[in-house]
Amino acid sequence: MATLLSVNVGMPKDVPWQGRTVHTGAWKAPVQGPRMVRRLNIEGDGQGDLAGHGGEIRAVLVYQVQSYHYWQKRLGRDDLTFGIFGENFTVDGLPDDEVCIGDRYRIGEAEFEVTQPRVTCYRVGMRLGEPTMAALLVAHHRPGFYLRVITEGRVQAGDDITLTRRGPEALSVADIDALLYLPDRDPAKLRKALNIPALSPGWQQSFRELAAAQQPKQEPGWPGERAAAQQPREEPEWPGFKTMRVARIVRETPTVSSVYLDTTDGTPLPEARPGQYLSIRIAVGDAAPAVRSYSLSSTPTADAYRISVKHEPHGKVSGYIHTALHPGDLVEIASPRGTFVLEDGTRPVAFISAGIGATPVLAMLHRLAATRDPRPVWWIHIAHDRAHHAFADETHALLAQLPDAHEHIYYTGEAPCPDQPSITQGRPSASSLATLGIPADADVYLCGPTAFMDHFGGVLRDHGLRPERIHTEQFSALPAINPGVTPTAALRPHQPPGPPGTGPLITFSRSGVTTPWSPVHGSLLDLAEACDIPTRWSCRTGVCHTCVTHIVSGDITYTIPPLELPEAGTVLVCCSAPTTEIVLDL
Length: 586
Prior knowledge:
The chain is built from 12 helices and 31 strands. By secondary structure, the protein is an alpha+beta fold. The protein is globular and about 80 Å long.
């Protein structure tokens, strides 16, 4: 019979790590005597990052003494004390390859249900001083597992562990863990996993996506509001950069110019999806070539793309485009990319933009107008004044081609003329937006400054729109996902400290940083962090794929072989280093 050997608890605390502070409850220690187990955790215990640990589904973490013995030999360690793997219950028995999801156990006065394997997390490696531990737990099929509390009660070391009910489908903890994190998945097991009610919602969602032949969009167990951890898949039309010619440049406003690009050999251009962007690489002066991304602002034709660029006050590339780029010049362009695209369907559509944020939604409007799409369409745009209202006549003409279009323009810097009923002075408020009649089942496309999108996204959700139907475009770096790391003041991305490297150039296209590689950085993720570029990660060992990033050009090598390679055209930055000059969509 299995036995509870130790009850381990610990409250969250701040721990220094790689120059940062991590708020974590991974430091657990054995306690004597009975402890009350309640729905959310054990008396005296807590979790520092409730997004990935704790809560009703992950109230208690279990690890086996047999795995302790395994790691003592494997790691050559004799200092592995109970609780060091972050577990609440150290048990004799209950191996991961025998315990099944949905199994129920009686321990002392309490009853528990197995809900999921341990989430891959860098903090177990941090606690043990073994940075690759998260990957090792998965690769060696020894993750441990979480319990949900069915019946509250007291437990203590020495209690017997009795199986009270076997879960359906007979999929073990090790089976479920491998099904998510390792290659060569068995479709039949995926279907079985989705028939287990006790499996945590995050893992169920990941398996639904895998069953639909998709990579999981986020680390299982993390709430949806943290946004998709991974960049969705997309296939580039051509690898790296190709040379294109500037066909013409059109001044739209005093600060916005449109650049028309065509091929150098007359070959047709592949069609881009409305809303996608181009990355452009330009050598400005004697500095290393800079890469920036600009949305396509119209429906591409077979012989031309159009991007529209705002001249930022201190923008090196935008300044060059506005002052030094001329028709006939050659530039390097990467294939159209981006997943902020117009979805097919019949639901109403609302485009809400501010300033230069109009560019991707303007391309979507072009597509709807070209087909005289019957869907009701709302066009809501905020500009400073008429002089700085880019594409005003163009959008008005496009909307006139649609059978059910609604135009609402807001000028923050001037009052409209009396004969312009669609223009209002000021900004739309929550109450005025509610009066515009946007249906609750509409697909909404938001583009503009981050604060603008956050505000209006919240307003729309309060108005009854479902979050999954509110689409946003992030021009700059994506919001960071650094679980447990104590937030600090955001810094503008910059060159890394210390002497410059001598290796190949690394370009972070979203952040506007190009810097030579230095082996002092253990990985591309380490280099990005040294530049204060917002990053996304969880395991830092190539397991969870949270750090997956599109690679625009160049090649890499893996310093830690991932348990499963990411899709073509992407890279796991947490465990890779460059072999050539590379451009990352980061």
